[in-house]
Amino acid sequence: MTQKHSSPQAVTDMQKRRRVGSAMLVGTTLEWYDFFLYGTAAALIFNKQFFPSLSPTAGTLAAFSTFAVGFVARPIGGLVFGHFGDRIGRRNTLIVSLLMMGIASTLIGVVPNYASIGVWAPVLLVLLRVVQGIGLGGEGAGATLMSMEHAPADKRNLYAGFPQMGTPAGLVLANVVFLSTNALMPSDAFDSWGWRIPFLLSGLLVVVGLAIRLRVEESPTFESVVSHRAVERFPLREAVRVGVGRMALTVGLMVANSAAAYVFMVFTLSYGTKHLDYNRTFLIACVSVAAVIWFATIPYWTGVADRSGRRTMFIGGSIALLVWCVAFLPLLDTGSNAVAAIAFLGMGLIVPVTHSVQGAIIADLFPASVRYSGTSLVLQVGAILGGGLAPIISSALVGESGGSAGVTVYLAIVCALSLVCAAFLFRTPTATPAEPAEAPTAV
């Protein structure tokens, strides 16, 4: 019986790939920890700390508006980091983005509340949220590219999925820290000052993330771009030449997953406690368990995509998401803890089907020399239209009607739109090559 032995070089390459995948997962987890921590605090704390003069509904809308500001800032980060990521490399831009997110989150933990400094409290909160958004805008596309561009040809979806796993991992970490801090002190103390502790912890976590990320080598694909003198002077301009139509379809393809995820991760914390009298700890626990399932199933779905292709999997997942979004809030409205748990578990099982390959789908639209800029643009516009607006729209619809029917209709429309966009996009082949052309171009 013949045994296959890997060469020393093959073993070294595999170790590098694993180190890159692990570093991108850890880095994105820490960035999403900061981002989701803000979302949880916006749903449960910030209306009382920073908008006490408003009614409960108006205060919640104001708090969710500051949450949405981070999404508005993300395209700025995506464009800036995308430009330099295509010009000077992926690695250094990702280090800067991690630093920005960690510093901003730590400072949120020391911002005085409205009772201390008046209107300057929400102003400072918004400014720091903008910094968070810019940092995450640079992280999302860059981490996907670093991981995917180190991957072997037959595992591009798998490696591109590692940063995607950072989203649910960051959510779980944020909720665990939030719940643990809440459990260790009286409720009044937590609402008054204890909520700051999870934000202050960001300072320590970012040091860990930097120590890991600094060990990662530059993307070999970007090094190939440099060696072929194919670096573009204005990469975003060249990226748009892929075609506005294809880019618009890709944005549409991702909005349903983003909207559904932020409704179940963020909006339900406010809606469930204020309108349905669910226990806050119970809801956070449900979201966390769903996120664990989401995290654990991403490698399975990216493996399916590598073996069988993305089209059937993605369209099937989009149909499942549409069906479950129609059922999700009515299940929650029953007021039963058992039924609500089933609703959240369904989201945890269905959301990762389409989320797992979104980064790879977007990245494959663009040639390597402009991939960071193009991917950032599509990713962040889709995030605004999907996740950034979902909590605000949902809260407004509930405030108008007093019930969740309008939110269910909204989610159904968004899911149907994404399904149509996916069907049209997958009818045409990927438009761009993965590597730069051999012929040199002017820098």
TrEMBL record:
Pfam families: Sugar_tr (PF00083)
Span of domain Major facilitator superfamily (MFS) profile: 20-430
GO CC annotation: plasma membrane
Spans through the membrane: 20-46, 58-81, 93-111, 158-181, 193-212, 247-269, 281-301, 313-332, 338-365, 377-399, 405-426
Keywords, sorted A to Z: Cell membrane, Membrane, Symport, Transmembrane, Transmembrane helix, Transport
Cited function: May be a proton symporter involved in the uptake of osmolytes such as proline and glycine betaine.
Family of the protein in this entry: Belongs to the major facilitator superfamily. Metabolite:H+ Symporter (MHS) family (TC 2.A.1.6) family.
Full protein name: Putative proline/betaine transporter
Native source organism of the sequence: Gordonia malaquae NBRC 108250
Lineage of source species: Bacteria, Bacillati, Actinomycetota, Actinomycetes, Mycobacteriales
